[in-house]
Amino acid sequence: xxxxxxxxxxxxxxxxxxxxxxxxxxxxxxxxxxxxxxxxxxxxxxxxxxxxxxxxxxxxxxxxxxxxxxxxxxxxxxxxxxxxxxxxxxxxxxxxxxxxxxxxxxxxxxxxxxxxxxxxxxxxxxxxxxxxxxxxxxxxxxxxxxxxxxxxxxxxxxxxxxxxxxxxxxxxxxxxxxxxxxxxxxxxxxxxxxxxxxxxxxxxxxxxxxxxxxxxxxxxxxxxxxxxxxxxxxxxxxxxxxxxxxxxxxxxxxxxxxxxxxxxxxxxxxx
Amino acid sequence: xxxxxxxxxxxxxxxxxxxxxxxxxxxxxxxxxxxxxxxxxxxxxxxxxxxxxxxxxxxxxxxxxxxxxxxxxxxxxxxxxxxxxxxxxxxxxxxxxxxxxxxxxxxxxxxxxxxxxxxxxxxxxxxxxxxxxxxxxxxxxxxxxxxxxxxxxxxxxxxxxxxxxxxxxxxxxxxxxxxxxxxxxxxxxxxxxxxxxxxxxxxxxxxxxxxxxxxxxxxxxxxxxxxxxxxxxxxxxxxxxxxxxxxxxxxxxxxxxxxxxxxxxxx
Lengths: 271, 267
Description:
The structure holds two protein chains of two kinds. Chain A is of the alpha/beta class. Chain A has helices at 37-50, 67-71, 79-83, 89-92, 117-130, 147-154, 167-182, 201-216, 237-244, 249-252, 257-270; strands at 24-29, 55-60, 94-96, 100-103, 136-141, 158-163, 188-196, 226-234. Chain A has eleven helices and eight strands. In chain A, helix 1 packs across helix 11 (257-270). Chain B is of the alpha+beta class. The radius of gyration of chain B is 25 Å and the shape is flat.
């Protein structure tokens, strides 16, 4: 299967403006928590916005949402209010620093952290509602491979898995990709290696993951699975600073290596 | 090409046409039908040949026509030899089950069965004997599963079973029970001549929460059937349930070259 004929391959799709059929949906997930998933999502959203895209980040980490923490936002209205019909979608979609929009989960969402038919219908409905209004909808999923996380990913056309070179992160990223390839029958997943220690480490890790996947997950007849390295974000003191100050790295440290890597990721997604 | 498109597009299910007519079209419109003018000879002949009971109502009354249509529907959904559901209605049921699983998140199992060395039965004992065997196997399968399960004859000696709401940990036991039941059969293929057959079974659970496609689901079950055949027949193979656990072997391979690479890096 050539890349061009695979609708699941983000790199092959044309830039999505005007987005026919609505925004491109991209789930960002990681397996292990604390590897910079929300950091990558928020900065990627800013980088896409800087290239003229209308971007919405949806906090799909219903149980332990922390997009508001990363962005230092104190929302009055959240996804929870939309779920409980206390607010309209328009009211709950907020502008974020970096020129994109966010729909935050809010802390009241714990009751929705279990995947009931109600939660599924509501998430599906909300994504259907926001898709026509944006070029990109980024789904910041929770950590782990819970049914909520897998469901959120299933709503997206493309997936990015964020991992660090740490063994536990790699193992969890591998497990996540394995489930996506088998249970969700994905053919293509993008990889972001965050906190890389040196140049080339991302490529090495991606190759290794692909090799183990090839051996234990496929290849199955007529199917190819491709893990593609989408970005290598090197460990950067500026990242630590931005995270501690709860600032958007792209705005406050635009010249650092990590910011350049995220901008390159946005360009790659835009094709 | 279409199959390839469906393989990768399963996240955007096609919009299916509504299965009911709009209300205004369902209202009785007697002036539209002249029942007496309908030519039903062929349909009635077909039903008679199939041994279907014709409706008792006054011929060409609305109730009678309804009865004829129901009988035709029944006929077109059944396999003539076994009385099981045929391939066409099986495919419809499978598509429904995919939708249902995507919504309910319930585990559902698809089993595909194939009579082992069936060609040898036909070649050695004749096609009449083959038909006996197929009927006997069909009966055994139907008696082994729950009433809610759908058993279909989808090809010559191939059967499929849809088991809705089937817990993942009992999947293999269910498949084994069917396999055993068939292997215990003693089928009389001609007076006094008995024959035993076995089946190979492949199975896969529908991916929960995710809208898959009937095609992908069938392919996964078929793959397990090939495995059962390759491993010596008369056995049941189910697709291993997805677990997030990463085996020691996988971890070993995952870190093998990364570790050695790090070693090389050291001064």
